[in-house]
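Example 3.2
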Amino acid sequence: MNENHVYDMIIVGGGPGGYTSALYAARAGLDTIVIEKLSAGGQMSLTWQIDNYPGFENGIDGFSLAEKMQKQAEKFGAKSEYAEVYNMDLTGKLKRVETSTKVFK
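Structure, written as tokens:
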């Protein structure tokens, strides 16, 4: 990927809120990336059984639900990057997110 690439949307955190945002943004045609430190789902991925999420009448483990959320967002073009965010510069028109792997704009 080009170092000068500028995303329409950078989402920091790949939990349920992050991947829901990524899904809606990507479906709207925005060039979107989710930056997550460990794995899709955030804290939810460590949960053994989720019984209160619609559509899973027998419940689902957090890791599997997180994978499904990530795949659905990526189906519409969202990208995922596993990295730790060190710094963000949100001033000015062009925003910068510095991570353990690279700088995203």
